[in-house]
Design goal:
four-stranded antiparallel sheet, Ubiquitin-like (UB roll), globular, 3 domains, 328 residues, 52% helix, binds zinc ion, alpha+beta, three-stranded antiparallel sheet
């Protein structure tokens, strides 16, 4: 696995009975993280003379934090960093945020400090994180607890997120895929966006966009996007598109989707989706060729790909291949 030394620490070695300058080694270790095996990035210091590991408080704290973060990921919890993003993106203080989503004034701060929410609150937090529309409903329910200015500011922030989250993100990612691939059919594009959603869940524990997809005969379809490109039918989308500017974490996922899923035809990708639970479940009771505009619930997609991440132990981006091999 990856292993490199990145800095040095001066520490007392009890075996050598002297202060030594030792390298800090950073590496991935498979360890038991609260009942689950997980690959965790650790930092450890070793004496250069006797090779014993030296106990360094700050490295111990770092490793513990990493284990806790792994535990959160494994169990579908938001990371502390994601929790910290919440009041920022909704432009509201921690305490009013806590009240806005129906929790006690201090409760959310406790979660920021590491206390673990119960299952239903965890579910609530993930939903608030992914779905500004749901957050707006909660604000509406709890607005008597908040002051006027707080309400106006946070509602505006949620609306801004909605405007950015819905379709514009989806269309931006579509433009990126078209520009990078050069040769992509509408069917292929739909499926690559569906797997973009899957990869965001697997690697970032969040949705790429909140647009809902429908369980059509030929797999999951984002209707607005389909409308835009439907005239190309089974041909490549021959539209000159500039590569849009994306954030590096978005690009990382889209490049993986292009590399790992983009090599398959639309038909093959369609067959992949036909083997997966979200599409199958949304179409329960329908005949094979029966048209349907049933929604594949984003919660279901979220849960399904979280379970895939755990089942196939997908840690690094390239690990996605092990899941594709299963679908193939
Ligand atoms: Zn030593």
């Amino acid at each position: 696995m990856m292993e490199n030394s990145f800095n040095t620490i001066i520490q007392y070695c009890e075996h050598c009975d002297k202060e030594v300058t030792c390298n800090v080694v950073e590496k991935y270790e498979t360890m038991n993280s609260f009942g689950n095996e997980a690959s965790i990035l650790t930092k450890r210091a070793y004496c250069p003379y006797c090779q014993h590991e030296l106990w360094v408080g700050e490295l111990h704290d770092f490793n513990l934090t990493q284990r806790q973060a792994a535990w959160r990921r494994e169990n579908g919890y938001l990371s502390i960093k994601q929790l910290e993003e919440l009041p920022v993106k909704y432009n509201i203080g921690k305490r009013p945020f806590s009240q806005a989503i129906g929790l006690g004034e201090q409760t959310f701060t406790n979660y920021l400090n590491g206390s673990i929410p119960n299952k239903s609150i965890q579910h609530l937090l993930v939903k608030v994180y992914n779905n500004p529309a749901y957050y707006l409903e909660l604000v509406e329910q709890n607005k008597n607890l908040l002051n006027e200015i707080t309400i106006i500011k946070t509602i505006k922030a949620a609306h801004d997120l909605l405007g950015r989250n819905e379709s514009s993100t989806l269309f931006l990612y579509a433009a990126y895929i078209i520009a990078k691939c050069g040769d992509v059919t509408p069917l292929q594009l739909q499926k690559m966006l569906y797997y973009t959603q899957a990869c965001f869940i697997i690697f970032y524990n969040k949705l790429a966009f909140t647009d809902e997809c429908e369980a059509w005969v030929h797999g999951p379809v984002y209707r607005n996007l389909w409308e835009k490109y439907k005239d190309y039918k089974y041909e490549s989308i021959s539209q000159a598109v500039q590569v849009p500017q994306l954030k590096s974490d978005e690009e990382a996922i889209l490049n993986i989707v292009i590399e790992y899923f983009g090599k398959y035809s639309g038909k093959v990708l369609e067959e992949f989706t036909h083997k997966e639970l979200p599409w199958l479940k949304a179409r329960e009771g329908l005949a094979q060729n029966e048209p349907s505009n049933r929604i594949i619930d984003n919660d279901l997609i979220f849960e399904y790909y979280t379970s895939i991440k755990n089942k196939y132990n997908i840690v690094s981006l390239a690990d996605i291949q092990s899941y594709i091999d299963k679908l193939w």
